[in-house]
Amino acid sequence: MSKSNNYLALRSRSGRSIINGNWAIDRPGRYEGGGTTFTYKRPNEISSTAGESFLADGPTDEILDVYMIHQQPNPGIHYEYIIPEANVISPQLPPHRRPGEPFNGQLELTDGTDHEDENLHRETDTHTGQSTRTFPVIQPGRFPSHQPDNQVPAVLPPRRNREHNWKQVGTTECTTSCGKGLRYPIFHCVNRISHEEVSESYCDTSTKPTPEEEACNIFPCPAFWDIGEWSECSKTCGLGMQHRQVLCRQVYANRTLMVQQYRCHHLEKPETTSTCQLKICSEWQIQTEWTSCSVPCGVGQRTRDVKCVSNLGDVVDDEECNMKLRPNDIENCDMGPCAKSWFLTEWSDRCSAECGVGVRTRSVVCMTNHVSSLPLEGCGNNRPSETIPCDNGPCVGKVEWFAGSWSQCSIECGSGTQQREVICIRKTEGSFDVLNPYECSFLERPPSQQSCYLKPCGAKWFNTEWSTCSKSCEGGFRVREVRCLSDDLTPSNQCDPQLKPEEKEPCNTQDCIPEIDENCKDKYYNCNVVVQARLCVYTYYKTACCASCTRVANRQSGFLGRR
Questions:
Q1: Radius of gyration of the chain (CA)
Q2: Of 87, 223, 266, 368, whose CB has the highest number of CB atoms within 10 Å?
Q3: 3-class DSSP state for residue 65?
Q4: Which of 30, 45, 76 marks a domain boundary?
Q5: Which domain covers residue 262, as residue numbers?
C-alpha cells in the first residue's frame, strides 16, 4: 500500500481475523493464517516513503479477504500473486510477420477468449482501476515450420485500411484529487467518415499515438494532521504514559510535506500524550490498624501502615500502584479540650491609629469539653480584655497623599478610563492642609487614573478622515472609508445600516474667483461708478478701472464657475 494513514487488515472468509482485526492495530511481525505465514511490515512513518505490506510465500488453502482501515483517501494498493501453471503457450511468430523481422517478444491474443489458466504475472492498481496481463514468450532464433498440437494458433487481425484512424476521445481520471496528479489521453479507433467507434483491429496499431501524461489537479491538498503511532507504555504495569508524534502535513506534487502547524488550525489537534495501563500489577494494602492519638487531649494525629503490594505479595514502590486510590495513612484526632478556660491570641502588632491614641487587639475564645467554642459567658465573668490602649505620639505635621473617589467611566461601553484627584496634605488635629505635591514626593503616589470596562459595545461604525475636495470652488465632493468593526476591531456585519455615516459629501460650494493679472488694478477709488455707468466699453475707463471692468466682463461671459 502506498504511504498513508490507512492500515491493511487480513481476515479469512469464515470471519477469523488474522492481522489488524477488531479495529485493533497489531505490531509488525509474522502471523499464521490461510495455510501459510504472512509477514506484516509497517516502515517507520517519519523516514520511510513506503507504506504497509503483507508478504507470504504461499500457497494458501482458503480464501482470504484483504481490507483497508480507512483514515484518509486511498492513495493506491498494489497486488502481486502467481497463479499455478496449467497450459504453457509455446513461442511462435504471429502469422502476419515474416522470419527475420523485428519482434518484441510478446504475443497478442486476438481471438477474444479470456485465458485464466496460463502462467502469468498480474498487477492491479486499485487506485486507478487498471490491470495488465503479459504473456511471456521466448523469442527463438528460428521457428519450426510445423505447429505442435498444444500450441495456440495465432489469429490474423482484420485487414486494416485507411477508412479508419485513431482519435482522442477523452482522458483518464486524474490519479489524485489534489496535490498534482497525472492523466493520459484515451485513443479509440473510429471511422474516418462517420466518426463512429469500431474495433481497434480496424486501425493500424503501429500508428496509434503514444499517450503522454499531463498534470491535473495541481492545487495543493488541504493540510491534515499526520498522526504517528503511540509509543510503548512507560511502565510495564500500573498507570504510565505514552506519546505519539502529531505533525501538520500537506500533499503537493505527489510528495507529503511537513508544513507550519497554523495550516491545520481548522482541525482539532489530536492529543500527543495519553495515560496507559498494560495491567494491574500491584494494589494498596492496609497492613496495620490506626495508632493511638499522638496527644492525650486537644487535637493530635494518628497513623497506620499502607503499602503497595505486588501480585506475588512483595512490597514494591508506591509508584507501581494507582496514587489516586491510595488510602490515607495519617489523619487528625480530637481528644477534646484539655481544660475549660479562656484561649487567647497574641496582641496585634500595629496600633489602630497611626498617630495619637489608638488600641491593639486580640481574640478571646471560651473552650469546653464538648464543643470547640461557647458564648463568652461559658467561662465565667473573668473574661480577659480584647483591647489595650496604645499611643504613637501626637499627630503633628504628618504628610501623606490623599486620594478622592473615582469618577464615572469615560465611556458607556467597552474599555474606558476613570479619574480621581490625588493631593498632598498635612494632617493636624481635626483638619488638614493642602501642600505642593513635591512635599509628598518621598511617598508612593496612588494612581490618579485606571481603566474601566462596563459592558461590551458590540459592533459599531468606524470611518477615516475626509479626503481632499475634488474641486476648489463651485461644488466638488470629498470621500472617506467607512467600516463596521467589532469590539476586538475585527470586521463585522452587525452594525445598524441606518446609522452608517456618509461616505461622500459635497464641498467647496462657493463661487470661483477668477485670476486677475497683478498689473490689472483700479487707479481710482470710485471705479464701481464706472461699472454701474457701463463705461468699461471705452478704452480709457477699461484701463483706469482694469480690475473692476475685468470682473464684470468675466461674470458676463460666464467664466465664473468654470475652472
A1: 50
A2: 223
A3: strand
A4: 76
A5: 224-276
